[in-house]
Amino acid sequence: MTAPTREGDQDVQPLIEMHDVVREYEIGGERVRALNRVSLTIQHGEYVAIMGPSGSGKSTTMNMVGCLDVPTSGTYRLDGIDVASLSDNELAALRNLKIGFVFQQFNLLSRTTALQNVELPMMYAGVSRKERRARAEEALARVGLSNRLQNRPNELSGGQQQRVSIARALVNRPALLLADEPTGALDSHTTEEILELFEDLHRQGHTIVIVTHEAEVGRRAKRIIRFVDGQVAADSQTDSRPDSRADSRADSRTDSESDSGPAFSARFATTPATPLPPPVREGF
Amino acid sequence: MTLRDTLQVAMRSIAANKMRSFLTMLGIIIGVASVIGLSALGEATTISITQAVESLGTNLLTIDSGAAGAGGVQFGQGSAQTLTYADAQAIAADDPDISGVSPMVQSNGQALYGPNNDSVTIQATSADYATMKDLTVAQGSFFTNQEVTQSANVVVLGSDIAQILFANQNVNPIGATVDIRQIPFTVIGVLAAQDTTGFQNPNDYVDLPVTTAMNELTGSNYVGSIIVSAQSPAVMNQAEQEITSTLRFMHHLTGSEASDFQIFNQATTLSTLSSSTQTLTDMLSGVAAISLLVGGIGIMNIMLVSVTERTREIGIRKAVGARRSTVLLQFLIESVALSVTGALIGLLIGGGGSEIAGALTHVGNLVTPGPVLLSIGFALLVGVVFGVYPARKAANLNTIDALRYE
Asked: What mean pLDDT, rounded, does chain B reach?
């Protein structure tokens, strides 16, 4: 698995480029403006938290960034592609190849093994069976779940399920890892595991956008964009230094740049039980 | 996404909830099983009717006298006496497509031998009769043309009669003299036992030369009917025409005068019977096909429930890159797989049951490819037609709403 390449630095076009984006909904015959002329730019390799109270437009922004929704007006370019001009099928293909989703509710297929869940995006990308399996195994190893390939979601803890969904998000080598409240259903210990995983991925060069309302989680990102009433209220770099945080951990690794799957599984071997969200109903 | 992947996903979904899948298929299973079972039943009926009619001889034509009319009152068929022994001789002599002619005179009487006696049906006929009706002579022989010409006092006994008359008498029936209606006849043959059909027991019959019966018993030139065999079933119609013209000539009928006789063709009877059983079979199959339709509606119903229940699964699939068409295809394949699997199980039950029934009753192979292909094809159609609506519903779900669906 290779991280997206970043050649040059500032002359490269931004990954996310929103300009005057407006999104309006019709609710009960009334037009509601969820996003009001939002403009923002996120470069390749950034680790950004989108924060704000509910109703602030952060979820709409996440849908927009994730190509699940298109602007009513304004332009959104993902990796240079103008989303507004794309058909339904082209949007699906764009999501498939450019974006890896991580959801609060994990959103794994419940009757399907970890391996098959991770294979899913590659299936829609038309990757051959053999390569699919190899890449899925590799991705699961990367999140420390080499020994859980054949387990179904209900046989995994919340943290493990979220790691499966991160593996699924990474497996098509997307340009952007888009996480919607990824720790919302996890306890504080597991939250820490997942955040460290994100930090590792960020260090490897992945672009990460996390939508969250938890200040703790937001603070771990390098940049926080705050939404209020459908507009960007603040956009600031954080002073978090994950390396020093890692050093302060009692059982921390000395080499924070190391990226080995087994290290994860070793560290998170004793995952406490967490209240789990309802499983996704699947199967006839 | 390859078709193989789509198929596999659909199959996994069906396997994930086996009980519900089975219940959904049940309508189709019952529908297909009953279509195949009922058409096999129809096939069995046709076969047994055909066999019954064929056992009477497929190349036989029966000529009856016309109906008598008196003062505007029309009597039944054969109530008039118009057919003579000469008519039979003329048919045998003149008509090329005919292989055998049997003028028939039937009567009843008492047969007597020693202390034993029995009531018998006297059937007077010609030497051809044995061949035409495929009679097997157990002892002795049937009478010959010569014995008919000579009006000999000979008799061939049915197996039951022979048994009754010669019971407890240690005598060879052949050569014995039996009194029938107080006239002595020499027994020249005993027939092998025949299957009884309907109310008649052919083993109760005694066969005499027709000329003897006319001279000694009825004292008339008229015969009751004439049975004619055609050279082959293929020339039945020609034979019928030849007989008609011969008889009209013999009876001095010209132009538009109505014939005073009637010819019954076994083949016509057979095709009439076959077509009426076919109609019945078609009707039963039609009723069974309605249950296939109902089964299809059952599939649609469950698929709609399934789509609602699996809203989040659909959302996930669309979020990670499934196209609308892929989701549509997946659900369509699920409904088609359900209906086709149901059809195959129904085929196994209906076809297997019919084959077993056919083997047990010795009727033979009852399952014909027609109903099998028809019901499987119909099940496939049902799966597609009733799968489209739920599949479209699944494919058209809004991804964002589907992902948030609880």
From this structure: 85
